[in-house]
Amino acid sequence: SAYMGYAMQLYARKHDMLFHVLAAPEALEANPFFYYPPKNKQNFVFKNRNGETISVPYDQIKIFNAEIPFIRLREILPFIHGPEAMKYEDLVEMTQKEINKVFAPQLIIKKQERTIDVKWREKIWTIKLKPIDLAFYLYMLQEKSIINSKNNEHEDKITEIYLEIRPDVDREDKLTLPDYTYKGLIDSRARINRKIKEKIKFEKMQRFIIIHSRQTDRIASYSVDLPQDFSADFIQIN
């Protein structure tokens, strides 16, 4: 019955209904041999779990159809209408991704103001970042996840984004360029997350925006926990 409920949530049309069949008296509910009142209108006789003989008078036997309300997801899940069969585990995973989009915020990055506007429903949070951190955050939105290792493989790419934000900086003057080495990214991530948490106290919203880390001895895996197929409609860069 649980899987029937899940299937109805995913596939039921607007007019489809779900019912649970109830039997009275209560003793009949858990009886595996009771399906319907006897045709001969005789008492229904059975043994309970204790081995006692129970006789239920025919005129006391009642059958009810109780409608079970459920959430219909068919119209908001585009993959439901595909031609190919899907495994239950895949359906659950893809459905969760679609639901996550409902809670995901819209991000408006303003390079000149060096701010990130986080819009969710009627609420707007404005987070101001230093150019060094805004460039790294823009890179994270672009890549979704990176490995921060001591080979500093992301340094040049993030520096290019930084120079777009700070065109007044001389790219040839290495002393004026920010630190995007292994240690530099660790520090930048900490500053970004601190700014986000100072502005946004809603933890469920924080998890979409902060830069998550999984640390080992020599490398760190960084990620922004936006939906995997997060569309451009949710991220606007000015």
Q: What characterizes the major β-sheet?
A: 4 strands, mixed
Q: What sort of overall outline do the alpha carbons produce when their principal axes are compared? A: elongated
Strand content: 15-25%
The H/E string reads HEEEEHEEEHEHHHEEE
Indicate the radius of gyration in whole angstroms: 29 Å
Q: Going across the biggest sheet, name each strand in turn.
A: 7-6-5-11
* Structural class by helix and strand composition: alpha+beta
Question: What percent of residues adopt helix (DSSP H or I)?
Answer: 25-40%
For the record, give the distance between the C-alpha atoms at the N and C termini, rounded to a whole number: 51 Å
Count of distinct strands: 11
Mean pLDDT: 86
Number of helices in the DSSP assignment: 6
Number of domains: 2
Residue stretches low in confidence (pLDDT < 50, at least 5 long) are none
Model description:
The structure is a single chain. This protein is α+β, with helices and mostly antiparallel strands. It folds into two domains: 2-100, no CATH class; 105-237. Helix content is 32%, strand content 23%. It has helices at 2-11, 88-103, 131-143, 155-165, 182-199, 203-209, and strands at residues 19-24, 44-47, 53-56, 62-67, 106-110, 115-120, 123-128, 145-148, 211-215, 220-224, 235-237. A four-stranded mixed beta sheet has the order 7-6-5-11, with helices on one face. A three-stranded antiparallel beta sheet has the order 8-10-9. A two-stranded antiparallel ribbon has the order 1-4. Strand 5 and strand 6 form a beta hairpin. The longest helix is centred in the last third of the chain and has 18 residues, at 182-199. The protein is elongated and about 100 Å long. It starts with a helix and ends with a strand.
